Amino acid sequence: MNKQELLAPAGDIEAGYAALYYGADAVYLGLSKFSARATATNFDEPTLDEFTAYAHSLKRKIYVALNTVLQESELPELIKSLDICTRCKVDGLIVQDLGVARVIQKSYPWFEIHASTQMAVHNKEGALFLQKMGFKRVVLARELTVAEIKEIATIPNLETEAFIHGALCYSYSGLCQFSALEYGRSANRGKCLYPCRALFKCNGQENHLFSMKDMALQQDVLNLPVTSLKIEGRKKSALYVAAVTDYYRQILDGKGVDKQREDRIKQIFSRPWCKFHFKGRDKNVIDRNFVGHRGLEIGEVERISHGWLVFQTNHKLARYDGLQIDAAGDEKPFGFSVQKLTVNKKNCFEAQAGETVGVELPHNYPTLHKGDVICLSSSSEVKGAYHYEKPKPHTFRNTTEIDVVVTVDKNAIKASSGAFESEIKGEFMPATNPQKSTEAIEKAFSKTGDTSFLMRNLQIKNPDNLFTPASVLNELRRDLYGKIQVKESGGALPEPLLRNVARELPQFKIKVDNLSYLQQLDLSQFAEIIYLIHPTSDISGLLELPKNKVRIALPAVCRKPVLFADIIEKLLALGYKKWEVSNWWSLQILPIEKLDICLDSSLYMLNTQAVSLAGEIGASQITLSLEDIKVNVCNIIEKSSIKTNMIIYQDVPLFTSVGCIRDNDCKACPMGEKWFEIQNKGQKLKALSRDCQMMVFDEKPFCIAFEAKDLLPDYFRMDFCYCPYTPQKVADIVKQLLKFNNVSNCINGNFLKNNI
User: Fold this and answer.
1) Which pLDDT score is estimated for 281?
2) CA distance 71 to 214
3) Which one, 209, 288, 661, 687, has least CB within 10 Å?
């Protein structure tokens, strides 16, 4: 196996320099647009160019994350971003949106494409299909075990990338709808508000039910057979990036785990650490009691005496360091700066490990109890421990070598470089000093100004030794170099596919995971009946339905696709040709070239380039995104090359997660289905625990039947999956939806908003 790449984050150029100095083999970063960390500082073109040129001088790589989903109106801006990446010579692009992938493949084929973790690749089959689509690397879902990672890493000629350290999302990345539908800020568009970190009430208790600890694989990174080991943290400081990169560089270089380096990271920024599910399913990955940065545990409260905190510290402590105390009943740890410090009741600037210290508390300190955990949350010593070298500003710059030919005759002067040519007509007279005339041409064309060009060879053809004014030469140079600049871009957007099916009036579809829900319905009102299956579904009831109307749906998350092999084989043998897929793994195990394939809403279709690629990989239909706004939905419906489905009713999974919130441990788990009622400041949610998977829903269904009544998709779809219904309740709701009436007490997400 080749040397593994240590991949570090950079939210700004300082973090990038720190990453390179402390041993990162590659750095990933974002631009001002289309980054899943939109609130990071990110990079503009001059900064990216300078940083990339410097990294390349060290033989390191730079990857740009263009890993959000784009609306139709944003496609021209995508071209600008890709042109920047081209001019700055980045080494790869991290992508979520199929439309972005299509534009790169057709207009910027020189870039390697990495499938973002936002694409929710969680099994070997999903990785294989993305490899077929032209992705060179797949960034794996964080939820995977080491065994699952090893299985995917065996795919020949496919690079794999796994997270090893940093913040965790409660939901599978790319399958989280919470921030988008509840707060109008889409995680898939880089604007997540992190509602998973909030305090929720469940079973009479308030906890941070969905607030994840941080991942820290430490020495276990040595057991990962992936191409690239990824540190999370594009919103973290240069100090944090330096410390974490240095820590893992030491491990990868065979120097082992360094306790001092570990302690430093925890003082800079750290929630409690966990291995997530690396060694198998683990319930101890959620930090229920507190949220945010905690720091390094250095002791426990022994007593509070006249406004002073007394405890024995197990770590060096100095004035102006920051402390945090896990005060029971508070959502966040109580934090403050050490202003007065004593040892043996004597004032001091610094205390050593093992000493009993007194720390004066600020006036507003909360009630503290003996045994409360004390953490060192910031340290002046650590802040000064990670200096890093960086080049002087504007020292490094990417260049493109060019060859230029300048031809002078009596009536015109021409300059050419490859296929590009410029000309200025005029009347040119013999030069009194031919040598100076040649020098003037050389001087003019050596000026590359704000371009990235570096003159490799200049050929001058001036047989009659004619004089060329400097002003004319400069104008000629600017015109030529301006034309060559175009070569450094991919040009225009590739043409989307044209629609090859006739438009008709919209029809209705219904999707269920329980066939009994259909009992009281007139099925003639539906063009299709979509049945969401699981490996043990009873498919006998399908035989009572008209086969030409039935579409079989596969779920978004499947950790073991082999479990579906038997039921898929039976359904195919029975002649079911219509299928709906929610993740890439399904497209790998189905004979898609023989089937009618519809892509579900979790495979985000927000632009015509994405729809076109969907058609090119074999889909006949797509489903519009639940996150989207009406104006963009109308745009896609009008321009879509294949048939469109629009969901007008659904219990939307806000989270799909392996983070279990049951109180029992795994060994004592009764398994089966269990529902929870959850509240957050008046917001009511419900959560389903089933088959070691959690799904969280708003108490209210998503419904936009009334708002969508004037639209003309090919199909309106209503879903009755996951949440419990009765046949009568389904019939009552369907009756309203067929009339384009909303059900009472519903939400409409972002549909009527101006943006997300």
Assistant:
1) 87
2) 32
3) 288
